[in-house]
């Protein structure tokens, strides 16, 4: 359903944010206690909108693609995130002003300070700053750098600054420290000296149980909970590959300095899919269905050449040319696009940006972000990464549990592999209670490790190893163990699946839809409208009796009863306010339809149906009007066809 | 829909738990890492079942009662829970064995040890222990007390033990310590001495932000987030009272020693309602609709007299007699009952138990728990408390924000109240930046406090106070402030609402439904059936082609397409297993309907519909069968009426 938006009012983020707060879509948490940065509560329309988006997501992905939904706990013991790499690498760099105690995120600080110096240089050179730049600048100054100083820089320095800013996401902590020293970057408010950057882990930590000894974290993503359940899920799926699991739930990141409202928060809702696939076959059975979808891509080579020009291609072309690594990745990119458009993002402000080699996680083999354009710039809202076999491999290695899938081979094949032979009779008595642990350790060695062990055994007549959970050094001599290359005929191929992961930040998507669908009516800046698609709008219908005369009440009741029966969410506004005011209030709430009940309704049981965006009205019987609403909202109908059988109506 | 369960197999918790694990309803979290007590993950059928229950809850309460849904953050700063009392009082008592490092929950340990001694006494006296007692006993011994010793006790001691066990929930830490000393209770495994009980706070703690100075907790209930948003919600509701807010989300309790599977966990889903009501008028407009509902009550006076005999009464009688405090509380009790029965709990194993005076929270004025009977005993699954004005009052006092509702008086009334008059001209310059804080402090004083301050001012010519956020002592002399009793005519009455809180532990309800709906077919202990009501069953339909012949595929596709269009969740089982095996698998998953496709289907497009509990079958066209499923599942239909238009079918 698209309507031309007849407006001459430019977008104002301030007005939108006021509206969202006034109508309690969301608000800072604990506001009466002064609030906490990066935490927000959702009020009734925010909740309903979010629930509807989740509902669409579940139908679009989980039901449509027959995914296996999982709900894992948020509390996660230290060992899991040690293995996944989060304990060591899920960090940002911060620097402290020891005098004031203030803490800055190092990369953001360098960025802001250099940007403000470049602005000052422009002013000093008598150049004007473009309006949008000024806006951007105002926003920033609200945060750290309070004023732009008119100071001219050497041409060389300008170039250096520009070069640094282009690479700002790629610096290590040490490099950031060097930049801070070299360019004399200080606390922007006091000019005070800053300590060198130190690493700050972004996971919230806690401890489980009364002893305090079991260190734990709040998960920063839902993915690990899905990987740990891989074997149970594969079994549930009758051992069939490929398959996908999915989780919807809260995750947590202890941001150093949250800003930009819902876009960077400390507690947020995610929806993540882990699609497990054979690394030797990443084709997708439904790729045909999406191959002609045209999308706008920003591949890494274009970015590396310093451009941000978008390339328009079909998904089929993108995969065929190798720009997108494989069919499964391409299939999900197209499905993500369809989802985002369905819930109200503007396709002309949506692009798929590929990660550059230096920004991609070390384990990923390809990664595309769905980015939405907002007043804060292009925002990553969905990540779609090929995580390869990284996660399953590291958890398997750490726990000694096999995390593999099996494929029946159409014809058997001969393989030559190292195998272990244990003298069980001697082995058991020697290791006693540790026998199980030692055996598990041995059977979980890779072929390369077995080759090494076999050499050690040959050269020294024994193997020595330290095994987690077993005290002291473990010794195995050739009486106990033999390791030899053995030829076997295999009927089954065993492999560690690769994972393709579409990961959705629901709060960011939600906020972007607000920006894409917010406008104000012509010449009336204060009459804001949120044109949320009917499918996801918090409330679908507002019932408006023309006056609060008792005569109209039975009809209000009648319409309510029918809407309730049809399970269409509605509200009644029988306040004394004028019809116009009541509709304006609901335009702000994004309610797509209004049913007006007047004195004629009492005579002939007809009502008026109003469409939010066009303010067009039609008239018909209650049931005909409700049918139209149902059709447009839930069955992909549009206004024109959905109301074709109703009479046009012009209000006096 | 009820069917007589034709079975001769007694309930076995072991078999049920094996089934739930085998079919991945849920499983211990991080199992490949050894697991963590009290944390569980939900697999696909568990997720779907839980989502369906939440969906019914949302419709039954939020939509039907027009509640305002809120989603507040789980991360909560220390100050909020300091005010609510959780920092000081949300604790259990634990005692430590310094030698082994083991930690015991004090009340549970005393209970177990004394119970096992009573058993030992019975054995020593040559009495037999009843089978259910033995079961109960086995369960316990699995945990701490490993064996029952045949030791006869003095008759006096037996009485003392029994008396203690009857009051075990009411002891303070000090009292538990005295019992441990007096009865020489030690570490049941080693006999080692225990340290005196110390308090352990059940909230998980963490810190927000990089400095680590902002101490925070994971919420142990969703309620506080709703109270803090009270004023925004009242405004959203156009200032109309009464109204209710509702939240669905995770909460966390760091249990000392979790046990009993899903019944006592450390991370759990709650659904909570906060119904805000005028303390002077707790009537409910829809009470008439429920007053004739008959329920089984266990009021406090019956319990205090040592009995647990249930009293059957209508809700109307319960409120009229004063047993249930007010209409709103009674209304919710009836609505809770309707919800629990709708999702599959057995009404004959459901009771409402009133809290006794000594177990009720200090702020509550009445509290009833919906308890469900399981193999673990009667389990509290829903609490329904009248929290009075406690929460809003303490948060208002702490923050200085008014948390009140207003009522237009039909006729104005005269009140005489203490009022403050400030000399603003002197006040501002004196306190400068603190002026706002001091003024806020003054205006948030109660009438009693104002009376005291007025006396102080009269006697000493000044007031002195220490005010949070202001350094040093604040002094106000009579030049700055006057406090006097003033007569005013009021047109509006201002009051702090009371709160009635129905609070649902979703995991406990879920598990109880499993126990109430699990059975095995006659003479076939291994053929478990989960008779989940169709409305909440994870999958509604299993499509079963008679063989995997290609000839049947088009019909499978046809049936799938229709079910997808009707948004009815289904699964296809085209594995090679026998029809019987395939149905048995789905009986375990609680799938209520099966559609069998055979070679006749290819001829005339008819299919067979099988009902899970009775295994009855009927036959008709695809559309007729799907209509019957829809009607029974979503429109409160039953098998008999829903399939009346279909032909009976007897399989060979």
Structure write-up:
Two copies of one chain form a homodimer. With 652 residues, chain A is α+β, with helices and mostly antiparallel strands. Chain A folds into five domains: 13-72 and 222-389 and 500-504, Bira Bifunctional Protein, Domain 2 (BirA Bifunctional Protein, domain 2); 75-90 and 203-218, no CATH class; 94-201, Herpes Virus-1 (2-Layer Sandwich); 413-490, Signal recognition particle alu RNA binding heterodimer, srp9/1 (2-Layer Sandwich); 539-648, Anticodon-binding domain (Rossmann fold, 3-Layer(aba) Sandwich), CATH 3.40.50. In chain A, 36% of the residues lie in helices and 26% in strands. The first copy, chain A, contains 24 helices and 29 strands. In chain A, the strands form eight sheets. Chain A has a nine-stranded mixed β-sheet. In chain A, strands 25-24-26-27-28-29 form a six-stranded mixed β-sheet, sandwiched between helices. In chain A, a hairpin with a 2-residue loop joins strand 15 and strand 16 (377-388). The longest helix of chain A is centred in the first third of the chain and has 20 residues, at 44-63. Chain A is globular, with a radius of gyration of 30 Å. The two termini of chain A are 27 Å apart. The relative contact order of chain A is 0.11. The mean pLDDT of chain A is 91. Chains A, B: Belongs to the class-II aminoacyl-tRNA synthetase family. Chains A, B: Its EC number is 6.1.1.14. Chains A, B: Keywords: Aminoacyl-tRNA synthetase, ATP-binding, Cytoplasm, Ligase, Nucleotide-binding, Protein biosynthesis, Transferase. Chains A, B: GO terms for molecular function: ATP binding; glycine-tRNA ligase activity; transferase activity.
